[in-house]
């Protein structure tokens, strides 16, 4: 499964020690009897890939592919990754959703010195939770992720549930020109102030897919990872009835998604069980229905001529729990967080059409009243989004903690989205329970690391602050993050 060279422990340590520029930290030797250590290397470098059938695209890649290789290990194993930076700028890797020690979290200037061009850095941590995770840079993410730097990280349960196939779809979203090149308008003001860089080409595992071949009666565990800068998916599986078994890597009571639609904001993951119930020889289109009037057909499920079995198996669906500390909601501290900023008003559908290059019905200035606030802000400042009134400056190298959470205590963060836009809000270093939406308890009290908050919605999350350090808290629409929508939370 590993496409990158597997290094021997000796060879690896020797090469790491030989790197004069890489930031070094002591490596604790594996104790006898402890779980295995996986060693891989990832090299970030420019390269060319075939995203669309008829053209090659210059992109930024890990080990020459997009997504980067699927890193797969067993729960309890240790992962050691040597990252070589062959880009012309600094980078880092963040292990999204993995509860790593602070120094391994990959946030430049906060948890590590960025990896300079030509330098190497060694990440090492234990896979404490089983689940579906991913990795990506945390340095100028809006451009580095948008050019193709991301990959899946799968941690298998010691005894996975039974399925016929366990398959990962990494969803990518690109803004391509007619010749298949990546549009160079990264970080433009329009994207920043609206819904972010929503592209015009969706890829699955780095290709515009033709089809996904399945067999009648087959049970598939489909791990969806939204690696897009900004695109939100609401997937309709065309008459199939997917069952959600994990969100953001964390097991949840198996359930059918609301209205049958599987929703993923940027950075979010959903593990589905799908029983393939179609007839041999048939096709069914998986469609994204998030943007009204701009439905997008993602991929066809293509049924093979031969059924695997006549009816769906009745194997158990529930995953074993991960070792997460349970928050004591009654005793928890309460912290209010309000998100502000962006263009105001009801321009969402119009904006989406524009972002996707589909032409805009009517001129932007038709909507003068609702736009004035946003326009003023746009003209006055390069920051667009605020957390509790503060727009973080990504270029500043010493962000001060906005909130401090007492270590090993329970905390609630009550978040209010006072904007006209959706925001997938991500907390580093911890998973949290989503306990209420607009004052109503959630059905599943799901564990997440990224929660999608609708315009004007209030969401409460609860967690035990058991991982000490300074952690990022930010919107995962990467253009929003880059233009103010992030903060540092301290656990001490
Ligand atoms: Cu996936 Cu702070 O990032
Ligand atoms: Cu946002």
TrEMBL record:
The keyword Chloroplast appears for this protein: no
Protein known as: Copper oxidase
InterPro entries cross-referenced by the UniProt entry: Cu-oxidase-like_N, Cu-oxidase_2nd, Cu-oxidase_C, Cu-oxidase_fam, Cu_oxidase_CS, Cu_oxidase_Cu_BS, Cupredoxin, TAT_signal
Pfam family, one: Cu-oxidase_2
GO MF, one annotated term: oxidoreductase activity
Key word Signal present: yes
Residue ranges of every copy of the Plastocyanin-like domain listed in the record: 56-159, 166-276, 382-491
Signal peptide annotation: 1-20
Superkingdom of origin organism: Bacteria
Entry GO terms, CC: outer membrane-bounded periplasmic space
